[in-house]
Automatic annotation (TrEMBL):
Residues 435-574 form the Peptidase S54 rhomboid domain. Belongs to the peptidase S54 family. GO terms for molecular function: serine-type endopeptidase activity. InterPro entries: Peptidase_S54_rhomboid_dom, Rhomboid-like_sf, Rhomboid_protease_S54. This is Peptidase S54 rhomboid domain-containing protein. It comes from Peltaster fructicola.
């Protein structure tokens, strides 16, 4: 407005030289108009006394608006520059590697090339039937973990509800690494670990501040305020109590009290803010990083019905402490790692199956020989003659299983345990086909197999004897172990391992129910209300159905099916052999005697 007045005043001064009647009073009147905005400027200065040029100068309409009103063409050429987009986000100026922060880790990061088709998904996930939605879901989640660096922390594990097998996740990760090799997983992983450690340090510091165990560093303004407060407090303590009672509260004391109140309010606000941050893990500064992975608190989910989902408060975490193994334990742990590279060994299917198949054949042949040629020792030659043979046999097997369980906790035995008492489909050892029956890594697994062996093994041992019982146990266990190995190799489940005597125990069950199909099953003197053949049918149907579903589980259903089939076959062979022996046995001859 002042610029308009100056321009108007200059033009009027120039006009006053040519026309002396234009006085300074009219100039002041124009300034009054510009400040008050009451009447048009033409009413203040009559048109008869102002020339055309001064009237044009007094107009507050800009030249651009006048040109638009008269639609005069512009003297400048039209520009082809398009207007800048106004859809800016918080990611402006950041690299594409930070795009993962905008996505939920549970849903993953979209692939740069878009979603894949069903044909492409089938080519990636060979050996398993998976639809296009689940295939793209696996790839997007793994792509998010690669780009964020969380792959070194979370790995390729998926929630149990997703029903994603480890082999499928490994195939998806292999595809992403071959398609997008430029992703620096180690560098991003180091950055992820650094952010996680900084986040944990900040949380511990805030918690210590809240508990008054740690005094935070103050800003310069707060430090100056505290220093002035100390000076005021020191000044307020000067003098005597009598003098302070006579004069009352001084201005310094009032200022100090006000400063203390402000400090208390500020600390209370900090405590409330920290509490809100702890209660809301989904709305922190790092966004999706809080939802998964690392050492962050996990948000529990309670489901009601099919659609209702309720988030509960996270479990409180007191402290996190890294436990390092002792040097001698780390040495044996390194020795027990048979595959040093973090890749699947390139072996053919025949190379993985044929050696174990030959060991299985030798085991079955040895079991047949044992069943045919075993002669029980006399009672006086036994070590414990007062104990029944069935109890002694199953007790010896139980001692062997428990002993292997205890040895697996001893670090010098770890390498032998991983090599000869465990089958890994990615890199199997042939001799582990027999030793895997004795490995149990959890007490629950050991107790289940041992108790079941005692329940059904005593009856079978009483029917067939020690030699045949041991032949059935080891023979069916070897067949069940090889069946599990073959199923996992054909399905390309490279991230699994096989161990346990479940196949042998179910082989004993199958043999018992086949030898006495119409018998009554008794458990410690209690009879079950079903025939033996019905029990065998129910157990077999359940195992076959579970194996056909191919649901992600830690139970070796393939080995169970192999043990049941081999147990039934062993019992059928024993019945055939008994019938043949009975048919070829000579009939007793009746001779007449004279009276």
């Amino acid at each position: 407005m002042n610029n308009v007045f100056l321009s108007t005043a200059i033009r009027l001064c120039c006009e006053s030289r040519a026309t002396p009647r234009v006085s300074v009073r009219r100039i002041v009147g124009s300034f009054t108009y510009l400040n008050a905005g009451r009447r048009p400027l033409a009413e203040i200065i009559p048109r008869s006394r102002v020339s055309r040029d001064s009237a044009r100068a007094l107009s507050i309409t800009t030249r651009l608006e006048a040109r638009r009103r008269t639609k005069q063409p512009s003297q400048f050429p039209e520009s082809n520059v398009e207007p800048a987009p106004n859809s800016g986000t918080h990611r402006e100026g950041q690299l594409d590697t930070e795009q993962w922060r905008d996505y939920d880790p549970a849903g993953g990061l979209p692939l740069p090339d878009g979603e894949l088709s069903q044909e492409q998904v089938n080519a990636i996930f060979t050996g398993s039937e998976i639809d296009v939605d689940n295939g793209n879901y696996i790839l997007c989640v793994l792509h998010w973990r690669r780009m964020s660096g969380a792959l070194i922390d979370i790995g390729i594990d998926f929630p149990r509800s997703a029903m994603i097998e480890p082999a499928q996740a490994a195939q998806g990760l292999q595809y992403l690494r071959s398609t997008y090799p430029q992703v620096d997983e180690q560098g991003l992983g180091a950055k992820w670990a650094e952010e996680e450690s900084e986040k944990m340090r900040q949380e511990l510091q805030n918690r210590a501040i809240k508990l008054r165990l740690y005094k935070p560093t103050t800003s310069p303004e707060e430090a100056q305020e505290e220093e002035s407060a100390e000076e005021v407090e020191e000044e307020s303590q000067q003098g005597t109590e009598y003098g302070r009672e006579r004069s009352g509260t001084s201005a310094a004391q009032g200022l100090f009290a006000a400063m203390r109140e402000r400090r208390a309010e500020r600390e209370e606000k900090k405590i409330i803010t920290l509490a809100l941050k702890e209660r809301s893990l989904l709305h922190t500064a790092r966004g999706p990083l809080e939802l998964d992975g690392g050492v962050q608190p996990q948000v529990g989910i309670k489901r009601y019905g099919t659609m209702d989902v309720v988030l509960r408060e996270p479990d409180s975490i007191a402290t996190l402490e890294t436990v390092e193994r002792k040097p001698w334990v780390r040495y044996y742990e390194d020795q027990a790692t048979l595959v040093k590279e973090n890749t699947v060994p390139q072996l053919s299917t025949a190379r993985r199956l044929i050696p174990s198949f030959l060991v299985m054949l030798l085991t079955v042949a040895a079991c047949l020989y044992l069943s045919e040629n075993y002669t029980p020792p006399p009672t006086e030659a036994r070590l414990f003659p007062s104990i029944p043979p069935s109890v002694a046999t199953i007790g010896g097997l139980s001692i062997a299983l428990v002993g292997m369980f205890l040895l697996s906790r001893f670090p010098p035995f770890w390498r032998i345990n991983n090599k000869y008492f465990c089958i890994v489909p990615a890199f199997p050892y042939a001799m582990s086909n027999l030793g895997a029956m004795f490995r149990h890594d959890t007490f629950a697994h050991l107790a289940t197999n041992t108790l079941t062996l005692w329940l059904i093994g005593l009856s079978l041992h009483e029917d067939v004897g020690r030699g045949t019982f041991l032949a059935i146990f080891f023979g069916t266990g070897s067949v069940g172990t090889f069946t599990s190995l073959m199923a996992n190799v054909l399905q390309k489940n490279w991230l699994t391992w096989i161990g346990g005597s479940s196949g042998a125990v179910l082989g004993v069950l199958g043999a018992l129910c086949t030898l006495r199909p119409n018998g009554i099953v008794s458990v410690f003197g209690y009879e079950l209300p079903m025939a033996a053949w019905l029990l065998l049918a129910v157990v077999s149907a359940a195992e076959v159905f579970a194996f056909a579903r191919r649901k992600r589980t830690t139970t070796d259903h393939a080995g169970h099916v192999g043990g049941l089939i081999s147990g039934v076959a062993a019992a059928a062979y024993l019945k055939w052999k008994y019938d043949q022996k009975k048919a070829t046995a000579p009939e007793p001859v009746m001779r007449a005697t004279k009276a």
